[in-house]
Fold this sequence. Notes:
This protein has five helices and two strands; from the N terminus they run αββαααα. The protein is mostly helical. It has a two-stranded antiparallel ribbon. Helix 1 (about 5-25) packs antiparallel against helix 2 (about 50-60) and helix 3 (about 65-75) runs antiparallel to helix 5 (about 95-115). The chain is elongated.
Amino acid sequence: MKIFRTPAFLLVLLYSCFFAHLAASSSHLPERVATHFDARGRPDGWMSRTEHLRFMAWFGLAFPLFVPVIVYVIRFLPDRLLNLPNRDYWLAPGRRTETMAYLFRRNFLSCRMRFNQ
């Protein structure tokens, strides 16, 4: 299996930038941070600074991994749960592994292309 070093390096670099920004900006936040706003732009949800920073750290860590995890997990689903055009062809016993590997690779390549544009 080919190792994708560039996307992994890019992900680590972006995580580093994100956490550095989070650490640098944390001292500028008030003790009570507005986290939700109504239709008129008035705050109607609040968190403490610590809760907000903890939430942002976990969300920033987990959200970028959401799609790759979903694409990885679908290889373990039964064929009847996958909605693909020509499903019988793409998920035939001799082709299923190759199809799932293609989808997983394609996920990372599309992420890479978005950054190059």
